[in-house]
């Protein structure tokens, strides 16, 4: 079961959150879109109030789940916006169901296995340590039990890929994310997105070899986040790619700069 909120009226928009968040990450963006779009905001499988499966966290499988969600809601065509891990889900969604997509947007996200993406998982080349930690079987579950909030506080406020606008995720928001991660099975389920990365690399390379995604594609980078460091991965996979910067912003764009992000999306969809 995928838990989701459906708000507004108009063309459908699917917002896919990143790790370690839930659909709550889009709380400031949704009201800015809902006056002209029907906004669908799920908790990705394994996150928040959605079911925690025993497996199937490779992004191809998750993409099929969210596409079935949109079909069940009666949306034959829709815009897709993916932040962080949500962008990793958005690519196989576009590769498998491109005819259903009105547009594709990556926000601080890229495609594992393409371009120079694997460097992001290697701290010796400037990548983040958390990829390796989250991929280790069983150890995160053991070490994070009862310490979920501390881990998230480090990720959001102290890590090198953390927020540039440090008050964008406050203590109340941290509590929301910590409760979600502390739920039974949640650490195992959400780490499953990282433990599936080797399968994702194989799948993504196969998708890319089969031909480019042709839907209009945008990459949104933040000046103090990943930026456009993963643009090359998207350019390798799609034929119609544009990009833009969000200034004075870190990795968590939907929470740091919701109005600017909403403006970028609306301008693109209505141009």
TrEMBL record:
Q: What superkingdom does the record give?
A: Bacteria
Pfam hit, one? Abhydrolase_1
Alphabetically ordered keywords of this record: Hydrolase
Q: Where is the AB hydrolase-1 domain?
A: 11-116
As one GO molecular function, the record gives: hydrolase activity
Q: What is this protein called?
A: Alpha/beta hydrolase
From what organism does this protein derive?
A: Amycolatopsis tucumanensis
